[in-house]
Amino acid sequence: MSLKEEIARRKTFGIISHPDAGKTTLTEKLLLFGGAIQTAGAVKSNKIKKTTVSDFMEIEKQRGISVATSVMAFEYRDLKINILDTPGHQDFAEDTYRTLTAVDSAIVVIDVAKGVETQTEKLVNVCRMRSTPIIVFINKLDREGKDAIDLLDEVEQKLGLRVCPMSWPVGMGGTFKGVYSMYEKKLVLFRPHGKQEEEEIIEIKDLADPLLDKHVGERAANTLREEVEMVQGVYPAFNQAAYQHGELSPVFFGSAVNNFGVREMLDCFVDIAPTPLPRETEERTIQPEEEKFSGFVFKIHANIDPRHRDRIAFLRICSGTFERNTNYLHVRQGRQMRFANPTSFMASKKEVIDDAYPGDVVGLYDSGNFKIGDTLTDGEVLHFKGIPHFSPEQFRYVENADPLKSKQLAKGLDQLMDEGVAQLFTKEINGRKIIGTVGALQFEVIQYRLQHEYGASCTYEPVNLHKACWVKCSDDKAFQEFRSRRNKDLAKDKDGQLVYLAESAWALRMAQEAHPAVEFRFTSEE
Ligand code: G4P
Fold first, then answer.
1. CATH code given to domain 14-70+104-272
2. Does the beta carbon of 25 lie inside 6 Å of ligand 1?
3. What's the pTM?
4. What whole-number distance in Å separates Cα of residue 157 and Cα of residue 403?
5. What's the topology of domain 279-377?
6. pLDDT tens digits, one per residue of 54-102
7. What are the boundaries of each domain within the chain?
8. For 265, phi and psi rounded to 5 degrees?
9. Ligand 1 atom 28 nearest Cα
């Protein structure tokens, strides 16, 4: 198969949701369709139910053994579909943000009863930054929930998405009878606890067809007719280009646990979702069809087993063909590297591969050479854009608790930061180190891992901070003034970029007002 054909048969996406909306369940159903798993329950939820470190470490251990859960590939209708898994726990949101840099599209799962929740908003914002095409799946229609039209309003307002319903529910909860697919002009009847194979699908080209009344009853049929007419009048018709530019989001209704409405969405996804897209680098745009290989590391997974220091770097291939045992340029280190055992991930197993194509993710064994955002190429010096750090929300001073192990501590912190577990800031004024994270759990995870993997111990001290913002200014004089006046609030991040540490939202606003020429950014790259 030619490179072009390989690219044309690939779709790489992520499923995002607020915890409990049904991401794991939906993933599992998709894998079942693809034959990648045989039984329900095979996909372990990576949810942290109890928010404790031991719980987290237990999950990490399992994941360390089976990193396959991070990427799941399956074949469907002659296509190779890669699902990139994202952590469910909000303390690990940054990991999810970064994974979203490696997808070409996303499916957002929303619980019909809960509507749009905070985590959904944050994740969709990240997708919007990059105009990632989004399909919305409204889940749990077998339960009572919000009115479908109100939900669409909520999706438009809170998520800022223009929506285009592709299917419409007939009833809900106790009266849920199924969905009418406007996309395929079919009525899919719901049988609680039924299997997809048993799903009854009836072609109804015209909603006036009395067949509709026969199957769902006159009342429900009339409501459906009215609602569909209204919906079609209010919402734009589906337009693939608008969807692919991230400007229009198709919406489906269903029930993942009942495997209902999932195949309809998958079939549509396969028809409309983009194949691997071009990627921006600081130097130029990279087209997937280019013969020369390029890719970037978006995730690093530590092997928790202390006897093996290995980590796995996840590389998204952006152009050309990646081949085993071939020398590639590690751009940041300026040296050639080759990989004897690159792995691919097919649902529950991982295997060594000889080659991989744009859209694919390969796992590279790493003994500490990679950090997130690193680029590998066929020789060209390229730096992929869009793998930002996000402003952390929790901060603590980190101190060495064992003077004999300061080297180990420095190394451990360095590697954990490369993995993207948290961010390290060094204060300009006194060199004190501050760890910034998205969630409180990471502090304990860092302490635990420093001890178990590096033999180092640290303590934390509170620091009163609200946000870290990256600052930039094209006016040298204004920047100089800002730097001298705010010296005590400045720090460098791990890459040497200047960061303003705001004590409160108020202090941040005051700084912005006092220094209008300075740009305050909430990601390290915008
Ligand atoms: P997540 O990965 O987004 O966090 O959600 P997950 O799939 O784990 O689903 C969260 C809960 O919602 C699970 O129940 C799951 O069974 C349930 N669920 C998923 N889809 C549907 C649906 O269409 N209808 C209904 N009624 N429930 C659904 P749980 O009790 O937390 O776990 P479990 O014991 O059932 O596994």
1. 3.40.50.300
2. yes
3. 0.84
4. 54
5. Rossmann fold (3.40.50)
6. 555 665 555 544 444 578 888 899 999 999 877 666 666 777 888 899 9
7. 14-70+104-272, 279-377, 394-521
8. -70, -40
9. 257
